[in-house]
Amino acid sequence: MTNATIIPFPQRNPVSAESDRLAKALESLQAALEEQRRALSDWRYAMTELGIGVAGLGHSLAGYQDSLIQVDEKLGLLRTQSAKLEAWADGVLSQATP
């Protein structure tokens, strides 16, 4: 068996393999952080849009409340005028009947 050729098993370089794994893990972490930054930016934009919408709704409700106050004031005047008209009519009726 003197002419047998021994083929050595390939040896992996543990330092290189570990640094490759670490580099891939770091790249994955950086990608995840970037995705999280984008998601946070999108969330902040959505909150800003929501704030604008809520502010607009508040403005509309304030205008609606002002309109209701004006209607209430007009109805109060109409009640007063109708009470005066009723009193006048009652007076006219009481004078007209013998």
Shape: rod-shaped
How widely separated are the two ends? 152 Å
Portion of residues in helices? over 70%
Provide mean pLDDT, rounded.
90
Order of helices and strands: H
Class per helix and strand makeup? mainly alpha
Give the low-confidence spans.
none
Q: Bin the strand percentage.
A: under 5%
Radius of gyration: 43 Å
Main beta-sheet strand count, sense and barrel state = none
Q: Please tally the helical runs, counting DSSP H or I stretches of 4 or more residues.
A: 1
Task: Tell how many strands the DSSP assignment holds.
Answer: 0
Salient structural properties:
98 residues, mainly alpha, 1 helix
Commentary on this structure:
The chain has one helix at about 15-95. The chain has about 100 residues and is mainly alpha-helical. The protein contains one helix and no strands. Helices cover about 85% and strands about 0% of the residues. The longest helix is centred in the middle third of the chain and has 83 residues, at about 15-95. The termini are far apart.
Strand and helix layout:
Elements: H1 14-96
What is this entry, summarized?
With 98 residues, the protein is mostly helical. The protein has 1 helix and no strands. It has one helix at residues 14-96.
